[in-house]
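Follow-up to my post from last week.
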Amino acid sequence: MSRRVRRLAPALGLVPFFGYLTIFLLIPTGAVVVGAFVEQDRASLSNIRALGDEVVLRTLWHSVVLSAESAVVGAVLGGLLAYAVVTGRPDGLLRRSVTSACGVLAQFGGVTLAFAFIATLGFSGVVTEAGRDLLGIDLFGSGWLFGLKGLTLVYTYFQIPLMVIVFLPSLDGMRVQWREAAESLGASTWQFWRYIAGPLLLPAFLGSTLLLFANAFAAYATAAALVSQGSPILPLLIRNALTSEIVLGQSHLAFALALDMIVVVVIVMTLYALLLRRTSRWLR
Amino acid sequence: MKRTVRSAALIISAVAVSLGAAACGGPPDKDSGSDTKASSATSAKDLGGMDALVKAAKKEGQLNVIALPPTWANYGKIIDAFEDKYDIKINSAQPDAASQDEINAANTLKGTKRAPDVFDLGQSVALANTSMFAPYKVATFDSIPEEFKDPDGTWVNDYGGFMSIGFDTTKVPEVTGIDDLLGSEFKGKVALNGDPTQAGAAFSGVVMASIANGGSADDIAPGVSYFEKLKKAGNFLPVDPTPATIESGQTPVVIDWDYTNAAETAKLPSWKVVVPEGAAVGGYYYQAINKDAPHPAAARLWQEFLYSDEGQNLYLGGGARPVRADAMKADGTLDEALYAKLPEVQGDPVLLTEEQTKTAADYLSKNWSKVAG
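User reply:
Got it. Predicted complex:
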């Protein structure tokens, strides 16, 4: 075997991965970009122009707000939980149970999650019924669970555990010695957090928040199962453009909307990569 | 990142839809659609009469239907009756799909054995896709009123109904008109079957609200502001009603076609259905044969069955108004007992033309988000 072949051999193992990437990422992305600029088999900017439409802009705004809210709430609560876990014993029960629970819950999404919430907080949900019988209050109201507010709550449910998973390694990277060094030099707790831990953890924290944002921004199945009236967020507006039996011929608008989403996610993921680079310098 | 994968799947399905047959259709099956005689037949006579059609259909042995919910217009029983009568297996795909899904599926599966043989479509989707239909005249074609069929039989209305309000008398007070629903007893209880910018039934619900509030077939703005009021009162329940939500009491009031609402009375005795006085909005569904049907003879036999007295009375059994009702009444073949059970309709029924539907759809797509957020 020549030296060149031997050097290339390990790369062969990546071929299935790149094949997968091509089929499920590059080709669809290409098709979306091309499709967004086509109308009735001809090149056209009409769908791109339609992105400036009031309804589309409002939906984009809703999508961004929903993703940001659930990401920030998830990041703060998840971050606190992760810190609580890290202060415990590394092989303790708390840590083991929390991390494995988070592993499961972060992936507990889609239709199952939506129905779990409907069974809990829906019109005849367990908690709703209990609230009616025991406290005499109507938690269900006018069906807030099936709108944007409901989505924020349900998304937060899977954001918190995801935050724990992605943020825990950064907290683990903090050395006890750094704290000891700071203390032996006379630093107070506040000073330690203000000048050492804070700056070290901030990029990782912001990066994780961005990841949560992207995660919520692209979520579809949960929202689709929950929201049947209107299309408050972009993935649902895409569904509407593809399946509506009232407003026809919008399949290329769906491409344009998907392109809209790709642009937002690309921006977010670029920021994420930049932040990650900053953090990795320290936490090696 | 399961959810990211899901959005990728969504995008891929978007691609699949647009690339249609080119990307996803497999090679045509040799054993299906081979009977070219059946796929070009425009009546049973072309094949040598009804017996020959039955024989050809039995030889194919299968029929693909799509988007026919068993609880909708009695389709569950209709499918059983057809299977029993002709010993042909019916493959019912995606019972809860929308009309546009039927067309998408036909495009995506074109040339394969799994493509739908027949369609049951809402008005706008049907009229926008007539180039995909095979013209065919059933034996009873002449007894179908002119306005409910294409002269060549490219499409024929099969059954229709009126927009109605269904309500559970154990949960809410008696309803007579649409404005009753604005009262405080209906807080969080009024559901519309679907999103009116997406589903035909919900769309007609908005038209009904419009006509009851001084609008017309040309002007549905009052319908949208009615739902805005309903939402402001906290009465609009943004849940998609299904038989399950109705029977479990999650959707105590449902605005839907009278036949789907009527189907619930059999299972829930306290369920009542009214067509609001002076706001009768009618709607007929469109039946058509897929031009590229993999089982062309069975598809034609299915049409013959649906428009036979037996098929039409089966629709009636589900509370839907069969398109041949008047002719059958004259012939004495209509099941009068079932016909008498249909909700009463007062005032002139309103049926939207294609043009009016389009104008209304435009208005809705711009303004419905005010209601639904």
